[in-house]
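Our preliminary data section would be incomplete without showing what the modeling component actually yields. Below, a chain of 175 amino acids is followed by its predicted structure, encoded as C-alpha cells that our downstream tools consume directly.
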Amino acid sequence: MISYRELLINDIHHIEDIDRSETITYIYKLKGGELQELQASHECPSWDKEAIIELKERLLYELVSGGKAIGAFEADRMVGFGVLAHPFRGAEQNQLQIDLMYVSKAFRRMGIGTEILNQLSDEARKRGAAYLYISSTETQSAVFFYKSNGSQITNEVDPELFEKEPLDIHMLKKL
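Predicted structure:
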C-alpha cells in the first residue's frame, strides 16, 4: 500500500530509494509552438552519486526556502516524490513551478505521480497560484504524463528555467 506525506529535511536521504531508470523510445522537440516526435531508443540509467548529491541539494534548498515536497512511500521506501518550488513566476507572478517529479520504475502507471501532482496543485492553490509551471524533460513518458494531467504547452517560457534546461518542454497547468 502506498502512503503519501510531506517530506521534511530529515527525509532527503530517501532520494536514494528512487529508481529513475527508463527506456526512452521517443523524445519531443518544440518547433514553432508544435511538438515534434523523434525516435530516440536509448536507456536512461538511474542517478549516479553526483546526481544524487545535486538532487539532495535542490530538495534541501526548496524545503528551507519555503517550497513543499510530497513523497510516496511503500512502507519505509520512497517510491516517488514531487517538489513545489517556492518563488512565484510569470509576468503576473501567479505561477509556481514543479521543480522535481520522479516515480520509481517499478511503480509507474499506478497513479502515484498523479496523486503527488494533485497534492502539489492543492498546495499551489492555497498559496494563491493560478498555474503550475512545468519544465518537463523531453521524454514521451514525461510529456504524456503532464499533458494527461491537464498541462498545456506554453509560449510564455520562463527565461531562467529555459536557460537551465533548453531542451525541456515548457508547460502550464491551470489550477
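The chain has one domain: 2-174. The domain at 2-174 is CATH 3.40.630.30 (Aminopeptidase). Preliminary results of this kind motivate Aim 1 of the renewal.
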